[in-house]
Amino acid sequence: MLTTINIESPRQPEIAALLRLSGDYAHSLYPPESNFLLDVDELEQPGVAVYVVRDATARAVGIAALVGGAGTTSAAELKRMFVHPDARGRGVAARLLAGIETDAAARGIREIVLETGPESYAALSFYRSVGYREVPLFGQYVGEAFSVCFAKTIPGTLP
């Protein structure tokens, strides 16, 4: 499966569909107050890059956003990472995250942090398998029973 990864606008029907699927999945696992999903307006804010993976037919099959990392901070947060169920098991998530990490390193971002939930077994396994380490809850997730946080120092950057 050939893929491309580009930064795109979240205001596209295909991206909106992936965001809906992602939201539906999150809401099936966790109470609404424990979901920290960025909406389209938030995804369009300065300092947010939305990465879209497209397959060989140009169909959007995966998304993720990188928030922050500009100015004086050297860390950015990964949000809304999601692969369409039809595209899972094909390495889409790994290619997407590798592309984001490469871009982050080029932008001077030294660390990527993220939050997921304890019932998101595939996500927990995936992030561990690609070098993310579990870290204490940070920011808005502190005290949240349904949050698990991870971080990874980006290769090619100084610690």
UniProtKB/TrEMBL annotation:
Keywords: Acyltransferase, Transferase
Entries under Pfam families matching the protein: Acetyltransf_7 (PF13508)
CDD domains: NAT_SF
Domain N-acetyltransferase: 5-155
InterPro entries named among the record's database cross-references: Acyl_CoA_acyltransferase, Bact_Acetyltransf, GNAT_dom
Gene3D superfamilies: 3.40.630.30
Highest taxon of source: Bacteria
Name used for this protein in its record: GNAT family N-acetyltransferase
